[in-house]
Design brief:
Layout lengths: L15 H17 L6 H7 L6 H8 L6 H19 L5 H12 L14 E4 L6 E4 L1
Antiparallel strand pairs: 1-2
Helix pairs in contact: 1-4, 4-5
């Protein structure tokens, strides 16, 4: 027999009201615990795994994840401020900001249009366009 037993009721714990309550509790935890540094930590302190967000997002397509987005924004700002004030290790903070919050070291700049280059090497003005 593969998988969970047919009468397994464990997955039924997460109905839409319970899922919404959990998401809100993560946001409230992040707001009220100024030393919290990650969603993973908040979930762990609330007795759950961070992967629960993925499960809930897949199960309830219409669930509102604004609270999670707000919590991530708070955590990102907290990490940056504490790193700048040397409360957190700056190297580790940069790594975590890149991994968890999508920050990057480089910028890609695209240019549309013409660039005119004047070649004055032979005494004549030869204009080329690239």
């Amino acid at each position: 027999m593969a998988g969970a037993p047919k009468l397994n009721k464990n997955a039924e714990k997460w109905n839409l009201p319970e899922a919404t309550k959990f998401i809100d509790s993560v946001y409230e935890y992040v707001q009220s615990h100024k030393d919290c540094c990650s969603l993973e930590e908040a979930c762990c302190e609330l007795g759950q795994y961070e992967n629960l967000f993925i499960y809930l997002r897949n199960k309830y397509k219409d669930i509102d994840f604004k609270a999670v987005k707000k919590a991530k924004a708070i955590l990102s700002q907290r990490m940056q401020k504490k790193a700048l004030n040397n409360e957190f290790n700056p190297t580790m903070s940069i790594f975590l900001l890149k991994v968890n919050h999508g920050m990057q070291d480089k910028q890609v700049i695209e240019h549309e249009g013409k660039i005119n280059i004047l070649n004055l090497g032979e005494g004549k003005a030869n204009e080329t366009t690239t």
